[in-house]
Amino acid sequence: MTENFARHGDVRIAYEVEGPAGGEPLLLIMGLGLQMLFWPEDFRALLTEHGFRVARFDNRDVGLSTHLDALPPPSPLDLALRRRPGYALADMAADALAVMDALGWESAHVAGVSLGGMIAQTVATGHPERVRSLTSISSTPSPRIGRPRPPAMAALLRRPATGREDAARHVVETFRAIGSPAYRRDEQWLREMARRSYDRAHDPAGVRRQLAAVVSAADRRPALRRLRLPALVVHGGADPLVRLPGGVATARAIAGAKLVVHPGMGHDLPNALQPGIAADIAALARGDHRRQRGAAG
Q1: What are phi and psi of 152, to 5 degrees?
Q2: Which of 130, 167, 201, 228 shows a CA-CA span of 20 to 30 A to 108?
Q3: Does pTM top 0.85 for this prediction?
Q4: How far is CA 268 from CA 58, 217, 250, in A?
Q5: Which pLDDT does position 193 carry in this prediction?
Q6: CATH tag, 4-150+205-296
């Protein structure tokens, strides 16, 4: 596939799209510090088999999207004090909308994982008319809910990688700390994605800027309570990075949201669970269609 670029002001956002040309539009939003490469190919294939036209993109400050190098990276004290970052989740949500605009999508199903779930929630609360359905995976409505266990946070904040192979080791060790204890990890795949990511762009300062946007964010529950759209919340019962209360709080805040908790799932997308998660996203979209037809009639 060929990367394309959307524009949000001075920020360029790299994106790719796949699946049937006439398929239901689905925007996937990746999590903290990870490039769009980390959406597994098999998972995307499942979604396209369900009839989705799937778009994914590099968030700002990772991959081939714009890196805001003029913004100083936050210090550990800045992060601890939740000082306002150089940009907010609302800016990252506007990047996502820019991708939809570039694709000519007036609205789409929106799904995000971790930070991507926070961005997806922000897209939905700020622009509900553009969201056909919302899927929030391994995420939270507030940085104060579902706080990480100390070993998981330590894995996230370890020293930056100093080379390509060090980056591969770093990613594997991180997912050993935050991944699913009940499911086998494909560590070879993780190493390969880490190497490819390193080759595309390695920017630890950019990841810290993303993290500052996360920890400084306001509680989204008041805005989520105003939503009236189909919503799915997927969470791992063994997630040590965004613990289960984050998913529960998200589902409770959105009227009619469906909460699916997978025991033994951590902060990743285990291969064995991908067919079920893809099917749940497709079922949510089908329910959205039935609701819209009923309203029209």
Answers
A1: -70, -40
A2: 201
A3: yes
A4: 18, 22, 18
A5: 98
A6: 3.40.50.1820
